[in-house]
């Protein structure tokens, strides 16, 4: 399996960012890491190995990006600065990572995918930019970071503003009314996967119900057990990516 390491200083984030790329061709996949994890974790957890056949066959090319969750959602900064830092991260993906991918891969299609908080990142950015992404896969994800759940706090300590609203799929998706945006979302291949015993199950159901209300086609799969571990994600990526 072809593997390449890349690193550059991000002007948007003001720091060096790293990435691993697996494969030589195929539809590019931006693969977001789990909460406060890093670009190498999916390789270490053998999630990349689970996709080896697809990667070697040139079906997909996987770009494992790094996260800055510890500087945004999980930082000690005031809530407005937490969401502002997240918005900078999204700008980094849009204005640095995607242009880099376009220099490496000429495919028009682009997939966003992730597990746990990475699934949030994938769905959030894809739903806001359906003109860029053609497919999204969210696995074991939480789509409202303002909702306190068992073992999971409200990541903004009760604070809420417009920036937070437009970065929480369970908030902004029900309010989508722009015909062009709805048409683009209806053309996107959308897959949500969650475990039956996962704390985020109702969170996923809410998003699925919102998509149904907007007549946005999507696939919603509920796995047995919690299904919120690398051993499950290794199986999920074989099926959904």
Automatic annotation (TrEMBL):
Organism: Dyadobacter jiangsuensis
Position of the signal peptide: none
Listed InterPro entries: AB_hydrolase_fold, Esterase-like, Mycobacterial_A85_antigen
SUPFAM superfamilies per UniProt: alpha/beta-Hydrolases
The organism's place on the tree of life at top rank: Bacteria
Name of the molecule in the record: Esterase/lipase superfamily enzyme
């Amino acid at each position: 399996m072809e593997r390449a390491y890349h690193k550059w200083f991000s002007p948007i984030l003001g720091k060096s960012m790293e990435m691993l790329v697996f494969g030589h061709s195929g539809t590019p996949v931006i693969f977001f890491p789990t909460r406060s994890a890093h670009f190498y974790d999916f390789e270490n957890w053998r999630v990349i190995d689970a996709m080896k056949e697809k990667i070697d066959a040139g079906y997909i090319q996987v770009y494992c990006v790094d996260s800055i969750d510890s500087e945004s959602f999980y930082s000690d900064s005031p809530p407005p600065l937490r969401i502002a830092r997240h918005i900078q991260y999204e700008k980094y993906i849009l204005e640095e990572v995607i242009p880099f991918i376009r220099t490496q891969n000429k495919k028009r299609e682009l997939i966003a995918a992730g597990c746990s908080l990475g699934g949030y990142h994938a769905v959030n950015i894809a739903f806001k930019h359906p003109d860029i992404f053609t497919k999204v896969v969210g696995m074991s994800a939480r789509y409202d970071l303002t909702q306190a759940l068992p073992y999971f706090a409200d990541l903004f300590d009760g604070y809420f503003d417009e920036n937070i609203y437009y970065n929480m799929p369970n908030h902004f998706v029900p309010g989508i009314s722009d015909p062009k945006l709805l048409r683009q979302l209806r053309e996107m291949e959308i897959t949500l996967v969650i475990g039956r015993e996962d704390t985020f199950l109702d969170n996923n159901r809410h998003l699925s119900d919102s998509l149904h209300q907007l007549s946005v086609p999507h696939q919603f799969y509920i796995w047995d057990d919690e299904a919120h571990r690398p051993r499950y994600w290794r199986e999920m990526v074989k099926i959904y990516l």
